[in-house]
Amino acid sequence: MTVPAAAAIPRVPLNDLARAARQEHDALAAVLARVARSGWYVLGEELRRFEAAFAAYVGVAHAVGVGNGTDALELALRALRIGPGRDVVTVANAGMYSSTAIRRVGARPVYADVDETTMNLDAHALEAALTPSTAAVIVTHLYGRLADVEAIAALCTARGLPLIEDCAQAHGARRGGRQAGAFGTLSCFSFYPTKNLGALGDAGAVLTGDDALAARLRALRQYGWGGKYEVREPGGVNSRLDEVQAAVLAHRLAALDARNARRRAVARRYSQSLRNPAIAPPSPGGEDDVAHLYVVRCAQRDALRAHLAACGIGADVHYPIPDHLQPAYPLSPLPHLPVTERLAREILSLPCFPELDDAEVDAVIEACHAWRAAA
Ligand SMILES: *Cc1c(COP(=O)(O)O)cnc(C)c1O
Fold it and tell me: Has residue 242 got a pLDDT over 70?
């Protein structure tokens, strides 16, 4: 195994949010000053504008801004009136967010395995996991790639089950003219700073085409209020998307498609040039993949990661511990999720963000080529 001389290799971060912020510094400063001067900071004109723009972008009637993506999932479940005694089927390889929301409403997460190639919910495994206690399904479009969501939506419709899409990693992914977030009963977005559409802090949204669900969500995000100080909807919380974040997001929405295109170009450059038989690139994606993360597989993942670190290259594992093996929530008996567990041992995310330049991508590829798996 050769480690190239440190001086010859640029440091390549897994992500660097300051690069985008520097490029749009003047525009961001103007946006922040406008909101500061307005004297209105929560649930105002900026949020209404962003909600309308984002709903139109996704192609769904209503967008309801909330505090973050995990709250979005929780409020979607509350809007469906799912609580104790009910099961929600989800995957165990998507960072515990859906499980956290399901547990917060008192329901039980039931896990279905993922497809080996797409690493997303397997429609056959989902069908096998459905029982009379199932109240809903959450499908995550992991790493920016649309799941087999048409088949999953058809199955849910046939069983009379609501489908919630977790689009926190898939803003702008589309297939057959339809966007991530336009397939389910409700869809949930996070605008955490590292997401494809990111705020300067926490933010999220729930989208739906259903007027009644949208009205319930607007009540739930603000104490359950129908009108001021009148609590109509049980299970309300305080989870609002503030004016500063809404204004930043409305500004950044205009650049989302271009930045997604650059993420795809980075992913393509990796996939076209990576030629180490011990490192498997992800299966190629098209418009249905917005390359939120570029995730390779490697049987000796930890050794590869250590080698990249020695070369000054950032890499991380999304995610190392499947939900059903998290220490806080011991499960007995354990669900049988062989693909999920194998992936957790083998996956590694390489640097992939719009401001990464070609020389940096090539440096990562070179470092991958310099690594040899132990015999
Ligand atoms: C980031 C993320 C969330 C949670 O979003 P927060 O805004 O951090 O609460 C949910 N699901 C997925 C798949 C995510 O990547």
Answer: yes
